[in-house]
Amino acid sequence: MDGDNYFDERDCPSLPLNVDDLLEKNQRLQRRICALGRKYAAAYKELEEAREALGYYANPLPFLQFPREIRDQIYTYALQAPVTVRTHPLPAIYTSISVFKPPTPGMLLVNSQVYREAKEILYSRNTFAFSETKHMHDFLEQIGNENKDRIQSISFWVDYTRKPPHADPNYETGNEPHNWANILVNGDLKNITKMHVQGENINGAPWMLLVMDPVMENAIKNVLQRSPGNEALRKLKLTGYNWNACKKFPQNWEIITKQWEEPDEEEWGTDGYAECDEENQESDVDSEFPRAILQ
Fold this sequence. Notes:
Blueprint: H1 19-53, H2 68-79, E1 85-86, H3 112-124, E2 127-130, H4 133-148, E3 153-159, H5 177-186, E4 194-200, E5 209-210, H6 214-224, E6 235-239, E7 254-258, E8 274-275, H7 283-286, E9 291-292
Parallel strand pairs: 1-2, 2-3, 3-4, 4-6, 5-9, 6-7
Antiparallel strand pairs: 7-8
Helix pairs in contact: 2-3, 5-6
């Protein structure tokens, strides 16, 4: 190959090219497209005729005349996601987790009354998941105090790979326990009743269970105890922590634990989780596992 040329046809084998065959295939494809277009036009015409006959345009569905309870059920179907709502898209490596937003968020754009009613469902019925403290910080800043007060359920991932004092003091960028504790305490979340904490040491063994450090313990208690009402309504889900973590929180909270999370798992389902009762808090269970102790 000549040094001045980057491509030489002699480097590629010649392929037989039948122009007549390509033209015939192209004509067949065009006929199929035209037939499909005619079918669509006919179906659309029939639908429009049916709508006019039934008075669809003259008598639109009186949605706002439905009782508020019915409207709330419709809002729930349209705005409650089947899994956690992620305010930022996940990295491409998480291909198995595809749903990260409510099914029909465009409903909030219908009119001002629907917007006022629907946003109550949007923020109160979904669990908002964060993989970085910066994501939580940006989200809370964006939605404003009124919508912030509607949030009742959150989920977040805590990085135990590094240990204090090496943790980044900037809570907007770090994901260590001190960073999460900072934004939880200062994030002004007043009505949280459900919390899912996923702890992980990336460099640790898969079976390594984490110790609930005092910083995270106090932050979790601080946030879950802010909401007024019955303490028994508090629900805490711990992933990656040892059994003794259950003992650090009030006995009347509903607390469940699991070693690791499965992709697309129902956020508040209990399959594979163990409730924190006396049978699951025996000290000999923890002694079988190495611990990532934070000092």
